[in-house]
Amino acid sequence: MTRIVVADHAGACYGVERAITLVRDAAREQQPLATLGPLIHNPLVVHDLEEQGVRVVGEPEELEQGTLVLRTHGVVPAVIDRARAKGLSVIDATCPYVKKVHHAAHRLVEAGYQLLVVGESGHPEVEGILGHAQGPATVVSSVKEVQALELAPKVGIVVQTTQTAALLSAIVAEIAPRVNELRVMNTICAATAERQQAAATLAQSVPCMIVIGGKNSGNTRRLVELCRSCCPNTHHIEAPDEIEPAWLAGADVIGVTAGASTPASHITATRDHLERMLAAL
């Protein structure tokens, strides 16, 4: 009989759960209500919130009146100023761990360090970090990009919360011999690190791995990459009905994990769907 094993650490982190609760509570009391960009990178959750009357807008000016929610990834300070200048109420659902990156980036710039942000260029979280740094900063996502940089004697590093420790270590190893002073603020979220380690451990011991989460979720995509490096038969889904029977053929154990933007209910739904599929094989 095929077993289904869920990773020890999987699914929605504190910041995501906090944001969803804030918005659902507000939706019962405050209308019109909109999030500035998707609240989290999970299309199913965003669709569910839309059905509760929560719009998604790209700019504060798209909301004529009411309440604007700042997404978990954070925004640049100027956007908050624009929202308040328009007379909108603002609910800040920025993940507290992302705010720590904002403060760390600003402190490094103030202290005269050349600031490097290890992360995904153009990602909303990274854009917010750059805005809060309030000074020059460069985004790097690989050792190759660092090799092409001219480095100052003093370099400071902050990290997008969902990046991997392996990438940070590789970048630090490249920079350290080239500078007089290197200050590293390891701002990778503990929940992210736990999920990555648990997913990799599970993937090493199973013939099939299912990773649940938004296709637009950076942290989920990184889980997929980690799992696939250990288990080639790894598949990324947003909803249970995407699972194909061929993936499960011959597997005595199926591993399941989920990104930090995936509610526990989605993990339960996937497990239930897998059990029905296995029963029918």
SSE order and pairing:
Elements: E1 3-6, H1 14-29, E2 33-36, H2 43-51, E3 54-57, E4 67-70, H3 77-85, E5 89-92, H4 96-110, E6 114-118, H5 124-133, E7 137-140, H6 143-147, E8 154-159, H7 165-175, E9 181-184, H8 190-203, E10 208-212, H9 218-230, E11 234-237, H10 245-248, E12 253-258, H11 264-280
Parallel strand pairs: 1-12, 2-3, 2-4, 4-5, 6-7, 6-8, 8-9, 10-11, 10-12
Helix pairs in contact: 4-5, 8-9
In short:
With 281 residues, this protein is of the alpha/beta class. The protein is built from eleven helices and twelve strands.
Q: What class, by secondary structure content? A: alpha/beta
- Give the integer mean of the pLDDT values: 95
SSE topology string? EHEHEEHEHEHEHEHEHEHEHEH
User: How does the major sheet shape up?
Assistant: 4 strands, parallel
Share of residues in strands: 15-25%
Keywords:
11 helices, flat, alpha/beta, 281 residues
What features would you describe in this structure?
This protein is α/β, with parallel strands linked by helices and 281 residues long. Helix content is 44%, strand content 19%. The protein has 11 helices and 12 strands. The strands form 3 sheets. The chain has a 4-stranded parallel sheet with strand order 1-12-10-11, with helices on both faces. Helix 3 (77-85) links the parallel strand 4 and strand 5 (89-92). The protein starts with a strand and ends with a helix.
